[in-house]
Design a protein that fits this description.
alpha/beta
Length: 279
Amino acid sequence: MTLADYLALSGPAPDATLHYGAAPSQYAELFLPAGKGPFPVAVLVHGGCWTKEFGGITQLRNMAGALTARGIAVWNVEYRRVDEAGGGYPGTYQDMNAALDLLARTAREHPLDLDRLVAVGHSAGGQLVQWLAARPRIPATSPLYQAHPVPVPVRQVVSLGGLADLRRETALLKTSCGRDVAELAGTPSAARPDVFSDTNAGDLMPNGSRTILVTGALDTISPPRVAHDFAARARAAGDAADVVILPGASHYDEVAATSGAWPRVLRAIETALGIADDR
């Protein structure tokens, strides 16, 4: 699949759209399967190089529809990006926190089983979901810190062509997305000399998570090497990580329920939820 194929992806309308802030991009979409539940939950976080230019939440409705057909509820998250007011550091990360806080409140009114939850992120979204899993390691002095335990802990992650390691992949972020680290991690200060101390999942391990890194063999935005390198660092730190390479797949096949790669992506998600062997 090409970028144009990806941008053309669509899916069903959500059952509800809920706002966690006043900005236009501060909302999430809830998709509910048929039946009574309670349903396992997939939190979807779109990519797009942290900008508005390359689509996002609309395209992930394609995946959301396929997951709800499998009995999985979906929380499809929009957020402020670096080219929106308040986006970047710390706003984008604060949006992730707020979106999960809203999910916790939403689960009081809908049949959602938050004990069976996986965060699934594509590309830039891969960085954000791996950061969500790493929140327990964020220093209390950070503006991104949440009192522990966080309302919705993320212990299972599926990263689809994720660009998670801001410290070690600085050059790739520039060549693949045109992003400077300062846009995503802020600038150093006396109070925060290391900008990766609260933004980089690679620096916030071990955090008790399990990550399945799924990457297309033909992915040039986040090549397979990136997945293997992050998995090796996670394992060395004491966290669980597996790599799945999708034969013949590009960066965009990774998120399309219409692609030949979808069965393996779906299996990774269901494995993370502990339901793959039940079907």
